[in-house]
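Sat 14:20. Reprocessing the chain from the morning session after the first attempt stalled halfway. Input below, unchanged.
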Amino acid sequence: MNREPTSSNPSFFNLLYSVYFWFIKNIKSSINTNSSNRDTYKAFKSRQYYAILQQMPFSSTGNMLTSLLLTLFFWNDVNHYVLISWISALWCIAIINIILWHKSKSIEKNTLIKKHAAEWLTVILSLAAILHITMANYLFGLSDEQGRLLIICIIISFASVGAWMFSFLPIAGLAWVGIFTLGLLIGIPYHFWGHYWYFALIVTFFGLILASTVIVFSRMFLSNLEAETKIEHQRQVVGMLLNDFEKNASDWLWETDEKGNLQHTSLHLAKALNVTIQELEGKNFSSIIFSLCKSATSKELFQDLNTKLCTPLPFKNMQIPVEVAKCHKWWAITAKPLVNFNGLFLGWRGVISDITEIKLREQEMEFLANADPLTGLANRHKFNQFIKQVFEKKASANCTLFLMDLDNFKIINDSLGHIVGDKLLQEMAKRLSAAIKPNGLVARLGGDEFAIVYQYTLDKTSAQEHAEQILDTLKKPWYVHEYKIEMYASIGIASTPKDTMTAHDLFKFADMALYSAKETGKSKCSFFEQYMEENGKSKLALLSDIKKGLINNEFTIYYQPQVNLKSGSLNGFEALVRWNHPIKGTIAPDTFIPLAEESGLINKLGQFILNQACKDATSWPKHLKVSVNVSALQFTKNTLVEDIFNALKSSNLASEQLEIELTESVMINNYEYVVKVLNNLRERGVKVALDDFGTGYSSLSYLQEIPLDKLKIDRSFVEKLNVVDNTQATAIVKSIISLAQALNFETTIEGIESANQIAIFKGMGSTYGQGYYYSKPIDSASTISLINNWNNKL
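Finished this time. Tokens:
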């Protein structure tokens, strides 16, 4: 019969059948795991086996002492041969169990047991139960009231404690309970048939309770094993992805188990210690750090670090001096504890950053009066003094000034780290020093900005040739670690007396020429022309127009759809601002957004965009989201969260329909405040997306800690997929999507322009797409029309 009884006409027999059905079903689920994987089943069964062995010293010692007590108590009442045979058999079983326990101490907890080991252990425990209940029944018929009370107490205690101890292996626990229950039910009627029938009912009920306990405890134990296995699998997947992604980052990942031993070790960390990953695996993390602490200061700071590692609370930027290969270094250690679903501590995962150069700069005395401490070139002070002296010598000074910026420095600095960036600047300084003409000065003015100034005027042809020589020198490849780096620079040139006769204007005009070189393609030189000064004035006029435009409602919002790549359905729109200038017509955001950020008007403009986007989105279906870009400067405004929720409240838009997009540059400054703001937004339903991912700061430590919902992959990767050899671009996009999936982030691909691209990114597992293939940015009215006419097969 395979069906449960119906609820109609309930009877005592139906109730008994329901209880029977429940027992059979739960016994099966307790003995068999939910996993269809045979290896997982064996692993779980092994863990059940070892769990019982761990408490064998206690149960075996109890068996031995109890059997000894009963032997002494009944020595004068029972045949000595019977007692001696019985206690000898029990002691042999107890010794066997203790031996099994002792052998298991040297075995790893994840080691699989031999075939039928669990069954043999069940047989051994069952033999012990049979010996106990047989002797109890035997003694029961020979004892007085006092002896019977002792026997009953011991049997009940053994049945109860055994049910709890052996519940890890349900077949053993159920066999133990069943033998004791059946033995009592057989023994009592044998001695007292017709009497104490109610005692048999009590024993039956008691046996059912104990069997239920075994089932419940065993299922709880199996559930914990399954949860632990799932967590370990996730840890391994995330660990592999992070280690793979780490190759393009400057941070060193490390991870330990609950004992503090390293696992999933970073290749960069192994290289820093001049050892292999295999030599690091399994080593105690604290011991490794302590071995690198040679000075009294470092040992004192190590104690602070060790204290933090003994307390399962996250910590950040714990700085400690170390000595590696006889070189003094400073490391910054950030970590957070790993816990399972039940809050059990599983170890640490963290990041080590080499901050040696930063610490050395902090410890140095005030910068030398005329030298840049990083490159050894003249600093800004020396440069100003040199220019001043040139113009003070003669009323009509002759001077040529080259101002230059590295075009790709930010990308290198953000992706490979500041240490590599500093080495790049030092290399540039060497090349500039080698390329300088006589009677010239090369200076580092700050960041990646350099200057070369001569105390004479170079004609345009000579200046052009010299600038091109400098650019060619910088373009020669430079290798650091496994990276091949090519340096590109833009140069602005101004001279006297052609362009000006004052030092102030000379620098200003060279800076204008540099800005023109960058604006017209980079990696080139540009001479100052008079129109550049006019452009500067136009820029000021445009800034004034922006202020007026905000007052006169000249800005409007356009929307570009974001589409689910799998289903083809609309997910929402990104809000993009346009400026309808009364004279110049439509102005693209690339023209006025940077100017608004420079002037601080971005806060007011950003508030307008947010308010209007929320208002327009209220006319859309409730499942569509609106994404609004938030500038890094807006995060410096303490009322950002209040402004966002005021916009939602005034427009009556649900917070779940709003998504805030920010760039990685937001994280560079005021990191803790930004994380606090984002947590506040997400707690109240607003989604958060990281825009242009892969081109900015891209620190792994930030990626793990920033509260995010989505990564937007920059359109530059899409463009690179169109070239013939796109292996590297494809690998990077796959890695980013896989990492996002492991961290439970959605992804949006920007710049999709063909159905072929949709198929590629859909195959990679990306969530959403956005680009001209679906639609160019359109106004709010056209957005409504697009929603109403949207075809999922578009």
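Residues 1-10 have pLDDT under 50 and may be disordered.
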